[in-house]
Amino acid sequence: MYLLIVFLPLIGACVGGLGGQWLGGRGSFIVTSTCTALSALLSVLAFYEVGLLGSPCIGLQLTWIHCELFQANWGFLFDSLTVTMLIVVTVVSTLVHIYSGSYMETDPHLSRFCSYLSLFTFFMLMLVTADNFIQLFMGWEGVGLCSYLLIGFWFTRIQANKSAIKAIIVNRLGDFGITIGILMIFYFFKSVKFATVFSLVHHLATTSNNSHFLNGEFDALTLISLFLFIGAVGKSAQLGLHTWLPSAMEGPTPVSALIHAATMVTAGIFMIIRCSALFEYAPTTLAIVTLVGAMTAFFAATSGMLQNDLKKVIAYSTCSQLGYMIFACGLSHYSVSLFHVMNHAFFKALLFLSAGAVIHSMADEQDMRKMGGLVRSLPLPYIMIVIGSLALMGFPYLTGFYSKDVILELAYASYTVSGHFAHWLGTLSAFFTAFYSFRLLFLTFLSAPQGYKASYQAVHEAPFLLGFPLMVLAFGSIFAGYLFKDMMIGLGTPFFGNSIFMLPQHYLSLDGEFFLPYFIKGIPVLLSLLGAILALIFYYSFPGFSATSVQTSVLTQIPLKVQIYTFFNRSWFFDRVYNEWGGRFFMASGYALTFKMVDKGILELFGPLGISRTLQKFAPNVVYGLTQKGSIPHYAFTMILGVALAIILNGVFFIAPDFTSFFSELPKESALQFFLIFVVLLASDL
């Protein structure tokens, strides 16, 4: 049963993709959706057996790589952490598959799309069920590959191709970090198996474990955890390597929902939680994780505040919520971070799929400035987006309230500099989150119609296959937090068992959370309500502000308020800085060095044209001037010279590594005779 959970999506991907020519788009949709739904059903049974009954399962230990000390097996680990992620991945993926059957029904490549979705799900399941770092890395790279395929699914669109390339290149930067981290883990622990590595962490932490890096001496666990965190920064779109996430909106909307809610971006969070034993003994890394997560939450919230693309607003909200999850891990509260991952999956999938229903009915229009007045035409997506937005902003007693507010309270209760920094930035981010959530509602549904008449003529309510997943996700967005909070984050809950490790001193802030002043607990809620009210008032009073259009090249000549608008609308100019300082530099240096010097200067000498030109130029001289002289001593000399070179090369590279030792091992008579023959032949030739 446990193996079927993992491999059913792979079977669906192979049958639906390779057999799409005979099954057709509808047949591939049925096959892939059925396999994913069965996997979700079995995941519920696994959650009951492993999570609720407390019986972890280890399965299929088969040799994969065995080379001297290095051994990596095919192995699957099903503990409480794994089965929680299985519920998130398979349930959301099943709903996205069902939704895609209606959303993509007119696409001629529906079979390929459904195959990619199932393959995406399979690699994510491989990642969360792995029992060693190599298998985890295989799933890690697999979801990166599938994100590239799905973001660039509409390959005839230039911007989709650019976004897909951007996503895979930015993720490669993060993957470089996790690769070094895994290599260091094997160097210090002589194993890549989770059970072995995590059991030896305490021994390594209490002994001399310094490592030399960049001409400096560092703590080994600090370096390992930092490199692993770099991988999480790329995969989970943290500040610095976040630029691929908004660009990923060029793919179909079901892809955006799957990437942002259940796969890809949650992979980095899961990896940190899985490696909690490594991070717990690296306090410096935990502080860095907290700071980066807090800055990401604030940056993304301010950037999403003034976006005009409907999907990009929700994308930046994902980036912001990932910041909350990351700095919760930095505070050593991994279970709270995982709880927010689960809650976020429900309301973020709800927001994306509801936005897709709006875009689908508006003839693929995504600009909110060309919408408005849709509340009567699209009541179901409107209600769903209201529920998702309220859960996202942390409205009391909805799903987001039970996890996001707990993260902020624990940050304050940690009584550390990094914890208080994360608390106040996270609290300000809650204000901006509410602001852009209700700005989205106003511009899309409540404002006066701003779009073209032809777009409104095509508006229609969502069909059943689009509406059913929305209602299921709405139920989870309302009740999931309340139903699972005591089981997953209650003080002393045995749910996670040994799957998550925390040092005893880090449990103290759990006690401190219950003794916080009430005004500290109430600040995020009050700021969220204030942000929502201000958004409605502001955009009701100044409806033309949303249509402001400026050119960044004349920033010094425009008013300050427009400069601020442009700064946030262009996401703090991260893409511009990367393009001008990074992209253009590497393009120019690559053209000057690689293309002009290597390709044109060196390789073409040995390429097809280079060889022909070289032979035409030097062949007459070689044939008539150097080799074909008609002299027998010359021919003998050439042969002896070739034999001598062969003997010397054989001696240097195969017999004796030292050149002098080769000649010292020859008999003196042989060496003398060899030398005399060489001199005589050379003299006779001259």
Quick tags:
686 residues; mainly alpha; two-stranded antiparallel sheet; two-stranded antiparallel ribbon; 28 helices; 4 strands; 4% strand; globular
Task: Give structural notes.
By secondary structure, this protein is mainly α. Among the domains are: 321-496 and 517-546, no CATH class; 585-628, no CATH class; 631-686. The chain contains 28 helices and 4 strands. It has helices at residues 2-18, 20-52, 80-103, 110-129, 133-151, 158-189, 194-205, 220-235, 244-247, 253-261, 265-274, 276-280, 283-304, 310-330, 334-361, 379-392, 399-413, 417-446, 453-457, 464-489, 508-512, 518-541, 560-569, 574-606, 608-627, 632-655, 659-665, 668-685; strands at residues 57-67, 70-78, 210-213, 216-219. The strands form 2 sheets. Strands 1-2 form a two-stranded antiparallel ribbon. It has a two-stranded antiparallel ribbon with strand order 3-4. The longest helix is centred in the N-terminal third of the chain and has 33 residues, at 20-52. The radius of gyration is 31 Å and the shape is globular. The termini are far apart. Mean pLDDT is 83; it is low at 547-557.
Low-confidence stretches: 547-557
How many extended strands? 4
Strand order of the largest sheet: 1-2
User: What summary fits the major beta sheet?
Assistant: 2 strands, antiparallel
Distance between the termini: 84 Å
Q: So what's the overall shape? A: globular
Q: Hey, roughly how much beta strand do the residues contain?
A: under 5%
What is the count of DSSP helices, taking H or I runs of 4+ residues?
A: 28
- What oligomeric state do these chains adopt? single chain
Radius of gyration: 31 Å
Mean pLDDT: 83
Q: Helical proportion?
A: over 70%
Structural class: mainly alpha
